[in-house]
Fold this protein.
Amino acid sequence: MKRAAIALLFVGCSSYDVSRSLGARCERDTQCDERCLSTGPWPDGFCTTSCDTDRDCPTGSACIAEEGGVCAFTCGADPGCTFLGSAYGCKAMDDQGSSGTQVMVCRGT
Amino acid sequence: MSRYLILAGVLAAAPAHADAPTQGIGAELGIASGSHLTPGGLRVAGHYTYQLSGTDWFDGSASVTFGGGTARCFLDRDGSYVCDHGLLDGKGGELVAAVRRMFDAQGEFRPYARVGVGLGVARFSDDDVTGLVLALHGGGGVRATVSDGLAIVIDAELVAGLGAFGHSIGVAPQLGLAIMAGVEFALE
């Protein structure tokens, strides 16, 4: 019971920092620190950073094998992606730099 | 650090006559800290003082703030435009009308408090964000007369107000702190 309460507290306090480097809405690259994913499964646009491995990505994100390797927020289930908008869900994607490994990230449904 | 030591030494060496002139001008240099949509950085200010009563002086000033920084504004997921600038980012200019109340001299120093209102512009060029700012100023400092017609001042002030910005930001709070030091000259 105590552990559950602590876990609930942790989940309740967890948050993602949307920024110019990861997660901000965008239509073009100049609205981001590096690049904007404005087409495909990134509703309303998604600022991200190019990467080769997870180490290239901010805390709370992973490097997925898409668009040559981009960072995306990691998640455990769909509710963990609602901060990006209702069109985002938690999907399994290939991890860039770790062939055969998949990682759960927030991505357009 | 050595600059502060030199300044402290000059203040300590100031003679005991601590009267302020009826009219004076001054120049100050210091650091202003901002954040979010309040510019911060190196600040240069010019002052004009005019005695209103036995204890109060009008203190009008014009200042410019030169900060650095890169683009730090973005569209949040709800479509709102959010800016998260650092303490020493942005540029600004401001005109302030204030009243300086001089307190009794304490040895070589004459402390004072200052309150005023300022109108200025804040600019974050990398984000192409500009705002018109109305702010209240409050702070205090100490003035030490070094020779006839020349004094050194050190002061600090808090600034709080509101700014109207473009880019759908609208009205945003302004909050900053400035620490300045400079010289003042008597005009009469």
About this structure: The two ends of chain B are 35 Å apart (CA to CA). The longest strand of chain B covers residues 129-147. The interface with chain A takes residues 71-77, 79, 84 of chain B (CB under 8 Å). The first helix of chain B runs from residue 2 to 12.
